[in-house]
Amino acid sequence: MPGTHIRTIAMTAAGLLSAVTLPMATAGPASATTTAYDSTYYKNAIGKTGASLKSSLHTIISSQTKISYSAVWNALMATDQDPNNSNNVILLYSGVSRAKSLNGGDVGDWNREHTWAKSHGDFGEATGPGTDLHHLRPADVQVNSVRGNKDFDNGGSTVTNGGGSLTDSDSFEPRDADKGDVARMILYMAVRYDGGDGFADLEPNEKVNNGSAAYIGKLSVLKQWSDEDPPSAFEEKRNQVIYDTYQHNRNPFIDHPEWVESIW
C-alpha cells in the first residue's frame, strides 16, 4: 500500500502472541480535507485544480476588510494570544510567550513581522499587503531583525533566542513548529496579491536573494515545510479570528493544505 509500511503485532483470545500484520500510515502528502466552509465560502473553488483553483481562490479571498497598520498591534494581541495565558502572545520563530504590553521596538519587545518581507514587491506598510493579518505575526525584535528580508530556505547557523531557527547570509529557516505556518502565509500572499489593487504580483520562486523583486523563495522548500508541518490548532484558531473579527477572509491553505500541491 503506498505511503504505508507494515508493523507486526498480534494476540490470540487467550492473550498469546501470534503473527498478525496491520498497516501503519507514514507521513505523506496532505490528503483532501473537508471543511464547514466548502459549501459556502469555498463553493466556487471546490473541485478545481491548478491555475483555475488559484484564480478562484484569489477572487474569494480578495473580498476582505482592510485594517490600518496601527490597528495591527491590537489585532495581533487577539489573533496570536497565548491559549494558556490571555495576557501574552506567542511569538513567531522563537515560540516564546511574551506579555502583550511589551509591544514596541526595544530589546525584549515584540514587533510586527511581515512574513512576506515588505521589501519584496515594495509594498511597505501600505493598507493591503502591508497590513494583511494573514502574514503579519508578533516576533521578537532581535529575531525579527536577524530574519530581515531574507528568503526562506534550509540551513545556516543557530539564531540567538530563535527557538531553533537557523540563518545564513541569504536565507532564514524557522523552527520546525513554524515552518508550515510560514509556508502557508507566503502562499496565501501569492494568491491574494496578483498584480491588482495597485500592488505587485507576488509569487514564490526557486531563488534566494530576491531583494526588492516581488518574489520569495524557495518554493520547493516551502512546499516541503507545509507538508511536514500541517496546520496546528493555534494556526486554525488564528485563521478563524481573522475571518470572524477582522478581515472576514480566510487563508485557504490552512483549511485545505492539499491545495498547495494542487496549485504548485
UniProtKB/TrEMBL annotation:
Name the segments for region: Disordered: 147-177
Q: Which InterPro entries match?
A: Endonuclease-I, His-Me_finger_sf
User: Pfam families recorded for this chain?
Assistant: Endonuclease_1
UniProt GO molecular function: endonuclease activity
Instruction: Give the range the annotation lists for the signal sequence.
Output: 1-32
Q: Which UniProt keywords apply?
A: Endonuclease, Hydrolase, Nuclease, Signal
Acyltransferase among keywords: no
Highest taxon of the lineage: Bacteria
What is the name attached to this protein's record? Endonuclease
Q: Which organism is it from?
A: Streptomyces kunmingensis
